[in-house]
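Ticket #4471: structure export looks truncated?
Reporter: QA, pipeline team
Priority: medium

Steps to reproduce: submit the single chain below to the structure queue and open the exported record.
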Amino acid sequence: MQEEVEQRTVTLVVNTAKLTEQELEKALSKLLTHMRAERQHKPVKEKHGRMTVKQLAEQNRGMKSIEVSDENIGSFNRVARKYGVDFAPFKVKGKDRYLIFFKAADEDAMTAAFTEYTDKMVKREKKPSVLAALQKFKELVASLSPAKEKRREREL
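Actual output as written to the record:
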């Protein structure tokens, strides 16, 4: 038994010393096929949250969509993440509107997220703009204070 192990060890050392390009190529191709086979057996993790329409369609769970005409689609991301909705925004070419695709199974969560998002947008529109108020006060101060003329003369 011991002699057999020693003989295999010696043959392994001799064979590895004699590696040629062809043997190295064969070994690497076997390694690659083995790695590909392992990768196919591992379960693929599904992506959650914001994704592309293609990634959402690959999940094969059915898709529905909602049309949004708002440019500020990024703020919707926070609300959708809060409700755990998987969605894919898609901008319609030539128009200022978006289609938000989502899984059909997430329909109830999507309606809740969308109503919260629209409530936020309505509240944001009702708030007066701070920049507009600042501009108004600037004009008011300018009209109340006497106009100062800056006069510069050059001496020769």
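Status: closed, not a bug. The export was complete when the record was re-opened. Leaving a note from the reviewer for reference: The domain at 53-126 is CATH 3.30.70 (Alpha-Beta Plaits).
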